[in-house]
Amino acid sequence: MATYNRTGAIEYAAKWCNGHNPKYVDYDNDYDPDGDTSDCANFVSQCMYEGGGMPMKYTTTSNSYDSWYYKSSSNKSGSWAGAQSLRLFVNYNKTGYPRMG
Question: In terms of pLDDT, which residue wins out, 69 or 20?
Fold first, then answer.
């Protein structure tokens, strides 16, 4: 089982906090012509995955917080970019999955 890398997540956040990683959808610019949307959970998920080494999780259940993944802007779990679902995902995946600690 992978170990979560807190330092790596912090380094990723520092690298991309003033820019945008083009591998991921930019919610601040893609969905609102006025640019007044929020990209917070997407950015946190990127930090957890890219920097922290948290493995993506795919399940077939109907709970939005059972899966956590990003394949493309149109193929991602609700918990990747939704703040409430991300909170639930982290809270409910405490056993048998890397913890953020």
Answer: 69
